[in-house]
């Protein structure tokens, strides 16, 4: 069964460093998303991406964040200068169609720890 | 601020019983509703989705939607210990919302033998 994959599973970094989190969405999916979940808190939407551009972003997704689809399979989230409060699980998700009615499938997540 | 509210629990039910999980949402224009299961330390796993008022059944799971009351629920019949997890309600507002899901805080379900 096709699934979303993410690497690395755990990333430890120093405050102020740049990190890139990688995702391979399900191959025939067209819409991609990043969410995060701080330990013990809700899953929060960061950004949606379609046709090589951002469709929607939350207030969390400030200038420190960027997304890219560098090739036909990968989807990346970059945090330019990490802060302690960026420590969280980051989930990539994809869906075949966009909009409100389509199921999103989540990857296993990357645990980001900022020291 | 569009909100999705769930009782955080924990909800404890005996094996074989029906577990009932509830969710309310604030945006009356919301169009699609999802239930995810999340085991500790793992990612959300889609269980069911519902778009129309009424009931939708899939195996042991039944989702119920009442848009007038802004209420969606999940029933799990014949609960098993393996159903013990956090259940997340997620709502998509539709319209110009490009698939953005707003999640509730989740209800912890414990099924005891």
Estimated share of beta-strand residues of chain A: over 45%
Count the E strands of chain B. Answer: 11
Residue ranges of chain A: pLDDT <50 for 5 or more in a row? none
Average pLDDT of chain B, rounded to a whole number, is 93
What is the string of SSEs of chain A from the N terminus onward?
Answer: EEEEEEEEEEE
What is the subunit organization of this protein?
Answer: heterodimer
Distance between the ends of chain A: 37 Å
Helix content of chain A: under 10%
Ranges of chain B where pLDDT stays below 50 over 5 or more residues in a row are none
Helix-strand category of chain A? mainly beta
Order of helices and strands of chain B: EEEEEEEEEEE
Task: Give the gist of this structure.
Chain A contains no helices and eleven strands. With 115 residues, chain A is mostly beta strands.
Descriptive account of the structure:
The complex is a heterodimer of chains A (115) and B (113). Chain A is an all-beta fold and 115 residues long. Chain A contains no helices and eleven strands. In chain A, strands 2, 4, 5, 6, 9, 10 and 11 form a seven-stranded mixed sheet that branches. A four-stranded antiparallel sheet of chain A has the order 1-3-8-7, with no helix packed on it. The model of chain A has no long low-confidence stretch (mean pLDDT 94). With 113 residues, chain B is mainly β. The mean pLDDT of chain B is 93. Chain B is 0% helix and 54% strand. Chain B has strands at residues 4-6, 11-14, 19-25, 32-38, 45-50, 54-58, 61-66, 71-76, 85-92, 101-103, 107-112. The chains are: A mainly beta (115), B mainly beta (113). At the A-B interface, strand 4, strand 5, strand 9 and strand 10 of A face strand 4, strand 5, strand 9 and strand 10 of B.
